[in-house]
């Protein structure tokens, strides 16, 4: 299975899965009421490649919310074999526990990983446009700072493969919500001649982190675009794909 790593520190491990293997087999990772046995086999293949098993991984049933929760080693396996026991309605997780892989599903939405090095906390966040305008990354990071005593100067972030600005066309309904965010967002969208806009969702997420004191040099923004890089990623906007990539992280 092809994996794109986030190379941060030796004490963590993080990757994004690619849409196809070396033989161009579809490597879908999300249950969607068809081919679930194939998805389960793909997940088991990934776990084996990472020298672990599905009982040391956890996934939520994402619903484009700004809800998040702390998970522990005891939650390993939830959402892995079936969607029925996944945590419903949470789009982010964090943990202090080692050897527990946190998953976030995405096609064009943005996966965001956090590593709070001083407290030994990792987080996985799903930030689609609804999560972005709802500032889920801000909410999770602020919680880690205020409640888990993470110092911003020790927080590292990865804004993963997702739709880039040149391909993210948005209408007034989305841009009106962007304008209502808690900071000046005017530099993150460009109006086109036809009245639509091009939206920089990765930039909006990065700004949420900067506003909380995370250092710019500690923020890695993936250059990959899920629309453009069709040989690497599934994309709902491009081809209405029901398939999903995952971005995942663990403490070693």
Automatic annotation (TrEMBL):
It comes from Coprobacillus cateniformis. InterPro entries: Cu_polyphenol_OxRdtase, Cu_polyphenol_OxRdtase_sf, Cytotoxic_necrot_fac-like_cat. Belongs to the purine nucleoside phosphorylase YfiH/LACC1 family. Keywords: Hydrolase, Metal-binding, Transferase, Zinc. The keyword Zinc applies. Purine nucleoside enzyme that catalyzes the phosphorolysis of adenosine and inosine nucleosides, yielding D-ribose 1-phosphate and the respective free bases, adenine and hypoxanthine. Also catalyzes the phosphorolysis of S-methyl-5'-thioadenosine into adenine and S-methyl-5-thio-alpha-D-ribose 1-phosphate. Also has adenosine deaminase activity. It catalyses: adenosine + phosphate = alpha-D-ribose 1-phosphate + adenine; adenosine + H2O + H(+) = inosine + NH4(+); S-methyl-5'-thioadenosine + phosphate = 5-(methylsulfanyl)-alpha-D-ribose 1-phosphate + adenine; inosine + phosphate = alpha-D-ribose 1-phosphate + hypoxanthine. Transmembrane segments: none annotated. One of its GO terms (molecular function) is hydrolase activity. This is Purine nucleoside phosphorylase.
């Amino acid at each position: 299975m092809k994996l794109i790593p986030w190379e941060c520190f030796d004490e963590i491990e993080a990757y994004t899965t690619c849409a196809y293997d070396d033989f161009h087999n579809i490597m879908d990772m999300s249950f969607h009421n068809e081919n679930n046995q194939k998805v389960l086999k793909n997940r088991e293949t990934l776990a084996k490649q990472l020298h672990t098993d599905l009982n040391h991984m956890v996934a939520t049933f994402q619903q484009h919310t700004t809800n998040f929760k702390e998970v522990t080693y005891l939650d390993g396996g939830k959402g892995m074999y079936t969607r029925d026991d996944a945590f419903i309605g949470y789009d982010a997780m964090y943990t202090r526990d080692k050897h527990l892989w946190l998953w976030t599903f995405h096609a064009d939405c943005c996966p965001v990983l956090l590593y709070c090095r001083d407290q030994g906390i990792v987080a996985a966040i799903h930030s689609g446009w609804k999560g972005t305008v709802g500032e889920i990354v801000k909410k999770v990071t602020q919680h880690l700072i205020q409640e888990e005593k993470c110092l911003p100067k020790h927080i590292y972030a990865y804004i993963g493969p997702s739709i880039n600005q040149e391909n993210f066309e948005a209408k007034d309904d989305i841009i009106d919500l962007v304008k209502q965010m808690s900071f000046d967002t005017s530099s993150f969208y460009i109006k086109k001649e036809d009245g639509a806009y091009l939206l920089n969702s990765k930039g909006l997420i990065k700004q949420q982190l900067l506003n909380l004191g995370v250092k710019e040099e500690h923020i890695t923004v993936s250059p990959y675009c899920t629309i453009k890089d069709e040989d690497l990623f599934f994309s709902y906007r491009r081809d209405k794909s029901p398939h999903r990539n995952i971005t995942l992280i663990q403490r070693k």
